[in-house]
Structure prediction request, 116 residues.
Amino acid sequence: MLEWLVGKRRENASPKVPTTIDPEEVKELLDKGEKIVVLDVRQQHEYRSGHIKGAQHIPLMELNKRVHELRKDNTIITVCHSGRRSAQAARLLRAEGFTVRNMAGGMMRWRGRIVR
Prediction:
């Protein structure tokens, strides 16, 4: 798993899909009802303190074991507090063949509604 976290497995990365997405664009996609999966990779206590409505929760350190819970037919938007852990998650998922974008700035930049 560590090789994914440090980004050594990039052979499946698609140069056509941007690697990041702004929180405003994520909110627009959700408001339009686009088929995206918001994947929150923060720890349980962070997720409980407030998350994007409908977000799927898999902490980063469990992602390698739980990747089978995700489907490859929708774009996945990874989210954490600041964008660093979710960038690691995005690299891991991209290496597994998922279409994934990391939300820049994480929840610190999210201005949409959160649920607890």
In short: Confidence is low (pLDDT under 50) at residues 1-14.
